[in-house]
Amino acid sequence: MKKILMFSANPKNTNPLRLGEEARKIQEALKLAKRRDQFEIATEWAVRVEDLRRAMLDHQPHIVHFSGHGAGKEGLAFEENSGITQLVSGEAIASLFELFRGTVECVLLNACYSEVQTQKFYN
Asked: For position 118, what pLDDT does the model report?
């Protein structure tokens, strides 16, 4: 069975996103899929940097889906303990996923200006 980990962050000092709707649409699409019994989805909300590593260890996903805000070269917007933005660089995210390269098969970044982050995965 393939496990999908969908994690999201919408810090309180950023524009509101409809992350719940996105998660619902993904879950609905998965329910309609022919091989739906081959997938399991887990969600993590209001993710802080330290939550990401713990979620990766707890869920051991094959597919990782991030939904949130991106800031281009500055990184992706996670939350800090007070709920405001903590930017995480593409290098740091790539390093984390490198630790799980034996398990993670696909990483999807659904955030503005996230193309620069994905380029870090290949360098």
From this structure: 74
- Terminal Cα distance for the chain, rounded: 30
Where residue 123 falls among pLDDT bands split at 50, 70, 90? low
- CA–CA separation, 22 vs 113, rounded Å? 18
CA separation for the pair 61, 68 (Å, rounded): 19
What residues contact residue 1 under an 8 Å CB cut-off, 6+ apart? Answer: 37, 38, 39, 40
Cβ atoms of 82 and 109 closer than 8 Å: no
Asked whether residue 4 carries a pLDDT value surpassing 70, the answer given is: yes
